[in-house]
UniProtKB/TrEMBL annotation:
Naturally occurring in which organism (per UniProt): Galendromus occidentalis
Presence of the UniProt keyword Cytoplasm in the record: no
Sequence segments annotated as region (Disordered): 485-520
Source organism phylogeny: Eukaryota, Metazoa, Ecdysozoa, Arthropoda, Chelicerata
Pfam families in UniProt: DEAD, Helicase_C
Residue ranges annotated for the Helicase C-terminal domain, each copy included: 292-453
GO biological process: maturation of SSU-rRNA
Family label: Belongs to the DEAD box helicase family. DDX52/ROK1 subfamily.
Primary enzyme class: hydrolase
Biased composition regions of type Basic and acidic residues, renumbered to the chain: 496-520
Keyword field: ATP-binding, Helicase, Hydrolase, Nucleotide-binding, RNA-binding
Entry protein name: Probable ATP-dependent RNA helicase DDX52
Keyword Nucleotide-binding carried by entry: yes
């Protein structure tokens, strides 16, 4: 009884007396949710909704949880979405809603603010673009009414393409902010009023707000993609830029939505405090990898061992395309110089490459003209390459979130994939966290890895402080003489002090000659 109550609380269920539903009926609905009539779905008992969400691994925390959408045709009947939008969804290859789309689309269509955490490749982009296109409706001359913020330029361009596909035929105009020079000319006048949706990175948008006449006072929807990365403070994050963007979006009608494959406690806490009537969605276990990826750990010993192992893997034969992740630009350049000499169809992408080079490389990789692509964390988040068969973590990821996003470039949209991670003895302190992620995904992990003690490994691998060695002198004739001379000097000093004390004592006796005779 206690476990049932706890489960209901966790799923955000309100305690009301509900009509009884047979267990067979519940199992039937859970196994084939699309068979439930769309007109009666919301009127069914909350227990049925709860069962459907549990069946698909959907966790929801909110007041008045929206009913799930199990078929895209229900968008027309329940929310009066246009036939053009539904046909665009089908044309993009979406047959049935994924678990994250089942709950997020109705929540946003009901104008709720959301915080969504779902595995990589689960359809998060479409989950916010579909309701966005419907809610904006027709084009307007009021300026931007929706802003989508992404951490990298490559992800922004990918999201832009998805928006264009789903908004085709609606008249909505989308703009992707990639070159600040072109944008400065455009937004210095009133040309921005002819656009509806902006897809951008935080730095470029903040610069544009400062240098041009652009205002975001009409923005009704603010979407933050990869929100955990953007919410980070310091050099790696964009928290300061987000503050400026929030301040610029000062409309009373503003609705915010946060999406990511990984979540952080700071972000969860902030959203619970500041988002209005927020719906928190978690598909599957939080901060977990997709189960479609076969994950392996490979001990390589040294840096040279990494190069040997990757050559062995590639020579044994792999199905391209293949992504290889390294930690730095220098490491990417070095690995590329080795593999290109082996005659492999390989290229490298990092932030030092020009924008035109990066665009060209990504296009050639998508078309299959490049088989192996070496990249840094620049490509680790959100980028969707169709059919990536293998991801190799050449350098060990520095965090669990980085690992999840890296291997999430394969095994997308229900496809299978493989991920191989190299590790050395120096990576042992971070190994156990990655091992737990692999184990939760159902992949085999050696028992000894599960028993690793992180603190012990940190102390063991931490370089010990250098202690000064006591120097031992070898006595020579010269050193022996110096030593005797030194001791003799000390002896002389001591004897002089004793003589001075004796002389002082005799002076006292001479001054008081009768003291001793009186006592006698």
């Amino acid at each position: 009884m206690a476990s049932n109550v706890l489960q209901q609380l966790c799923m955000g269920v309100t305690f009301q007396k509900q009509p009884r539903v047979s267990r067979d009926r519940i199992e039937k609905l859970a196994a084939a949710p699309s068979s439930l009539p769309s007109t009666k779905l919301k009127g069914k008992p909350e227990k049925v909704q709860n069962r459907i969400r549990t069946h698909h691994g959907i966790g929801v925390w909110a007041d008045d949880i929206p009913a799930v959408v199990t078929d895209f045709e229900q968008l027309e009947t329940r929310y009066q979405c246009s036939k053009q939008l539904v046909s665009n969804i089908v044309a993009c290859g979406y047959e049935t809603p994924t678990p994250v789309q089942m709950i997020t689309i109705p929540a946003m269509l009901e104008r709720r603010e959301v915080l969504v955490s779902a595995p990589t490749g689960s359809g998060k982009t479409a989950a916010f673009v579909i309701p966005l296109v419907h809610l904006l409706g027709e084009p307007s001359t009021d300026g931007f009414r929706a802003v989508v913020v992404c951490p990298t330029r490559e992800l922004a361009k990918q999201t832009y393409r998805e928006v264009v596909r789903l908004a085709e035929g609606t008249g909505l105009r989308t703009y992707v902010l990639t070159k600040t020079s072109n944008a400065q000319k455009r937004f210095s006048s009133d040309m921005a009023k002819s656009l509806d949706i902006m897809v951008t990175t935080p730095n470029r948008l903040v610069w544009l707000l400062k240098e041009t006449k652009l205002t975001l006072g009409r923005v009704q929807h603010l979407i933050i993609d990869e929100s955990d990365r953007l919410f980070e403070a310091g050099k790696s994050g964009f928290r300061d830029q987000l503050v400026k963007i929030y301040e610029a979006c000062d409309s009373s009608k503003l609705k915010r939505a946060m999406f990511s494959a990984t979540s952080s406690k700071d972000l969860d806490k902030w959203c619970r405090l500041h988002l209005d009537s927020v719906v928190i969605v978690a598909v599957g276990a939080k901060n977990s990898a997709t189960k479609q990826v076969d994950q392996k750990l490979l001990f390589v010993g040294t840096e040279n061992g990494k190069l040997f192992q990757i050559r062995q893997i590639l020579r044994a034969g792999v199905r391209p395309p293949v992504l290889v992740f390294v930690e730095s630009k220098a490491a990417a350049k070095e690995l590329y110089s080795h593999l290109v000499l082996d005659g492999l169809n390989v290229d490298v992408i990092h932030s030092d490459r020009t924008i035109s080079d990066r665009d060209s490389i990504m296009e050639q990789f998508r078309l299959g003209k490049i088989w192996i692509l070496i990249c840094t964390e620049l490509m680790g988040r959100g980028i969707d390459f169709k059919g990536v068969q293998l991801v190799i973590n050449y350098d060990f990821p520095q965090s669990a979130a980085s690992y999840i996003h890296r291997i999430g470039r394969t095994g997308r949209a229900g496809r299978s994939g493989e991920a191989i991670t190299f590790f050395m003895e120096s990576d042992a302190p971070k190994l156990r966290e990655i091992v737990q992620i692999i184990r939760k995904a159902g992949c085999d992990v050696p028992d000894y890895m599960l028993k690793l003690r992180t603190k012990h490994l940190k102390n063991k691998l931490q370089p010990k402080a250098k202690t000064k060695l006591k120097e031992k002198t070898i006595e020579t004739d010269r050193s022996a003489k110096l030593k005797r001379l030194k001791t003799s000097k000390i002896g002389l000093k001591g004897s002089k002090k004793m003589e001075q004390k004796k002389s002082k004592a005799t002076l006292k006796k001479d001054r008081n000659p009768g003291t001793n005779s009186d006592k006698q």
